Amino acid sequence: MSATTRFAAMSRRAAITAAALTAMVALAGCNSGASAPAEGDMAMGAPEGAKVTVIEYASVTCHVCEAWQKENWEAFKTAYVDTNKVRYVFREVPTPPSEIAVAGFLVARCAGEDKYFDVVHELLASRQQLVSDPRATLFRVGNGAGLSNEQVQQCVTDEAAMAAAEDRAQAALSAGHSSTPTFLVNGTKVISPGSQSGPTMEDLSKAIDAELAKG
């Protein structure tokens, strides 16, 4: 099977997954957004059980997520993740084109836990290229994380991995988190009215610092 055919097969499966996820959005109900660990969580910073857990629901094809990372990630990481003040958890919610988002997440996971966030952040920084030329972008970013083109190809056509990705996305939607980026601080959603790039660093800091200050 050629590389192009394999990518087409991946796209067909991912398109079916995307349709199922779109249908689930209508069924997704809002809840309190508990910060309990979930299957497949990827995390940085403080260990599990930390006083403050920040959960981000996001997608590598989401332009608002791209903007949030550009405007806030380094400041957030420096203030709270690198200092182990919070446990930062990233949860995957594929957004249109969903098949490309799924492929990006699969490559990030194939790169390994130590490089997962490097791949996710590079894909977000390359979001426009990812959407316009996914094959070349996935190869480039995968190569940068130490994966060969063949390994990237295997990642995005792995049926078991795609099924697991679907399960993670469905769990997020079932919890009522279909919009991206969504941030929860100890289970409470942080909102910045009027912001075009998700919660501001100021609002996130207020929510985090309030939780850190609790006895």
Structure overview:
- Residues 39-210 form the Thioredoxin-like fold domain.
- One of its GO terms (molecular function) is isomerase activity.
- This is Protein-disulfide isomerase.
- With 215 residues, this protein is an alpha+beta fold.
- The chain has a single domain (3-212), classed as Glutaredoxin.
- Helices cover 56% and strands 10% of the residues.
- The chain contains nine helices and five strands, in the order H-E-E-H-E-H-H-H-H-H-H-E-E-H.
- The protein has helices at residues 3-25, 63-81, 98-110, 113-125, 127-132, 134-144, 149-156, 159-174, 201-212, and strands at 42-45, 53-58, 87-92, 182-185, 188-189.
- A five-stranded mixed sheet has the order 1-3-2-4-5, with helices on both faces.
- The model is unreliable at 22-33 (pLDDT under 50).
